[in-house]
Amino acid sequence: MDVADLKVFEAVARHGSMNRAALELHTVQSNVTARIRALEREIGVALFQRHVRGVSMTPAGQRMLPYAARIAKLVTDARTAALDDGAPRGALALGTLETTAALRLSPILSNFYRTYPQVGLSVTTGTSSGLTSDVVECRLDGAFISGPLDHPELYAETIFREELVLVTPRAMRSLESVRSAQDLKIIVARLGCSYRLRLESLLAEMGVSTATPLEFGSLDAIIACVTAGVGITLLPRGIVSAAAKKDLVTIHTIAPEKAQVETLFIRRHDAYVSSAMQAFVDVARSQPGPLMVAA
Question: Would you tell me the crossing angle of helices 18-25 and 3-15 to the nearest 10 degrees?
Answer without folding.
Answer: 130
